[in-house]
Amino acid sequence: MRNPTVLTIEDDPALLRLVEYTLSDRGMDVTTASNGREGLRQFYAVQPQLVVLDVMMPEMDGWETCRRIREMADVPILMLTARSQDEDVVRGLNIGADDYLVKPFSPEVLAARAQALLRRSSMSRVQKKPAAAYRDNRLLIDLVERRVLVDGVAVRLTATEFKLLAFLVENAGLVMTFRQTLENVWGWEYQDDTHQARLYIWRLRQKIEKDPKYPTYILTEYGVGYRFQKQGFDC
Questions:
Q1: 190 vs 119: CA distance, rounded Å
Q2: Cα angle for residues 81, 84, 88 (degrees, 5° grid)
Q3: Which residue, 194, 136, 185, is CA-closest to 159?
Q4: Strands annotated E in the chain
Q5: CA–CA gap between residue 229 and residue 232 (Å, rounded)
Q6: Checking DSSP bridges between strand 225-228 and strand 218-221, what pairing results, if any?
Q7: Per-residue pLDDT reduced to its tens digit, 182-198
């Protein structure tokens, strides 16, 4: 089986070598670029299965690079940031990143996150089990066609956002614990990362709830997890 191709875009030569060595040592074919513009050229050329992308870079920063990649493809994007503030993380997720790592990070964590993103992406491509749909007079979620409509308007979700929503809808009415959610959506490496789950739940609520502050679809069972609540008519 062909090794997965990873594009790493990072302007720090030492960190670029570390990422390249770490992922190559785990059986990935790594292509590198030192800035966003070069990264986009490499993206066109190699069509990677994963992008590891630094935020602060010359010529074109990681935000803009991420936005342009997301316009072209649904490839998983792991962003590297020197700041752990929620606003930076949320900004990255809002423009299409699938995960983030705060510098400095260990090679083992980087490898685990990269492998988890590749595994989730591969599973979503080959998964063939029948999927249900949910519909009421405001929200349509089609798990077969991977469509979400709110008041008839298409809502754009990242691959991870859609997988999280699908997991909750498939288990509608049941409380999914933080651990169940993290293991099923992100992988076992994330089973204790409740902050990750909270960020993505917040993002989904911004996109599908009428009032995200007072959600009616994605409910929090405090200290336990989340539950998707059907509203009225459902098919």
A1: 13
A2: 70
A3: 185
A4: 5-9, 29-33, 50-54, 77-81, 99-102, 133-135, 139-142, 147-150, 153-154, 176-177, 218-221, 225-228
A5: 10
A6: antiparallel
A7: 888 887 767 777 888 88
What are the tokens at 205? 């609520």
Distance CA 9, CA 19 (A): 10
Of 209, 207, 179, nearest to 193 by C-alpha is 179
For the question of whether the overall pTM of this predicted structure is more than 0.70, the answer is no
143 token code pair: 């798990």
The residues, ordered by sequence, that sit 6+ positions from 112 with a Cβ below 8 Å of its Cβ are 189
| CATH numbers and ranges of domains, the chain | 5-126 (3.40.50.2300), 133-228 (1.10.10.10)
What are the tokens at 221?
Answer: 């069972």
Residue 129's nearest CA partner among 143, 148, 140, 147 is 143
Residues 85-139: pLDDT tens digits?
667 777 777 788 888 888 889 999 999 999 988 888 776 654 544 455 788 889 9
What letter would DSSP give residue 193? -
Q: Which of 79, 124, 69, 126 is nearest to 103 (CA)?
A: 79
Q: What angle do CA 115, 141, 130 make, to 5 degrees?
A: 65
